Amino acid sequence: MPDTDLLTLQIDHVNILQVRYEQVLADHGYDSLLISSGAAPMRYGDDQSWHFHGYGPFLHWTGLTGFEHAWLLIRKGRKPLLSLHQPVDFWHASLELGQEPWLSEFELRFSEHRCAPELDKVGRLAVTGDPSLLAEVPGEHNSGALCAALDETRIHKTAYEIACLAEANKLAMAGHRAARDAFLAGASEFEINLAYQLATQQREADAPYHSIIGVNEHAGTLHYQYYDVVAPAQSRSMLIDAGVCYRGYCSDVTRTTAGLGEGRFGALVQGLEQLQFRLCGMVAPGVDYVDIHRKTHQGIAALLSVAGLVNDLSEEDMVSEGVTRAFFPHGIGHFLGVQVHDVAGKPVPPPADAPFLRLTRTLEPGMVVTIEPGLYFIPSLLEPLLSGPLGDHLNRPLIGELQGCGGIRIEDNVVVTDSGYRNLTREAEA
Ligand code: GLY
Ligand code: MN
Ligand code: MN
User: Fold this and answer.
1) Which numeric CATH code is attached to 159-429?
2) CB 209 less than 6 A from any atom of ligand 1
3) What pLDDT shows up at residue 2?
């Protein structure tokens, strides 16, 4: 069982959510809200289901990741009612619920049936969850305005949530150390993935997202999704982007390692890490997250210049002419919580110069964000640049050499505190 402090914080967390939810329901004219945990959908034309991932609002309240066909009823002035599905089934096991203190904050029921629990005295009822599971359920389903307001309750993490995210980081870093060791010992992507899973004691399907493990050129595909089972003759680089789910909370960490003898690439990794430290240092209340993204482009320009990858072009021009976008095409990061790309990040769309940015808010205490600059050698993005009017400014031989290392990303999980930031990933690495 987790330590007493965490369990106490969890009770505070539930009480905070009760206050937040009662306010949202009152604001939208509802008396109660029924939340479906979800259920794994079946594969089309098959008798097999996809792996189950629970619905965010249910996880936010309970942290129970594996409970399909569960229901949670939030009511003004009354304990939440948690109904868990426990069928008599000799094909599948039912998950056991640990005897943890937070459960005393709930009215608990078990049901053999998948349907929603009997509801009495619920007044005007709102319902949220996968629409395919709500056909027989009374009430108003998935009101857009209500769901947006519920998403907002997830922006400021409680102390319990931050403790869970810190633990998810600790667990992930054990995996990242094992992955690095496996890579340096000459392992294949597949073997590196096994090393990560063994060290984190987490099957990949239960991770927050499919681990991205790219050796050599594969490190240049942002969300590379395969694993080579054979190691290359020469292991020049490894990018691993992998997290752990702890009590429903996700870590999302990326590390890049240069292979032995890859001095030039190694120097670039160090340069990007220095930039990443500076960007983490910008995290503070009142800072516009878009400014951190823009600062990243300036830092990438400086790095391209120092490394001799781009010559005789000012850093301002590198940014304004889209040179840095070819090397760093994604956003600087996003919110993190019970979903890896947590909700409510974009009250306004991202600016035209940052189309993939998933977070456009001004930072406030309690927010948890990723800071994940990257520098990649992606042929489809570099070729137009090389053949365009700025092509002569690019160092083709060096780009050609480094293309064999794919790319670099360094990603930490950072909490906005009252006066600055707390880097959960570096704490776990120390
Ligand atoms: N692992 C996906 C991301 O970094 O956003
Ligand atoms: Mn991320
Ligand atoms: Mn990531």
Assistant:
1) 3.90.230.10
2) yes
3) 85
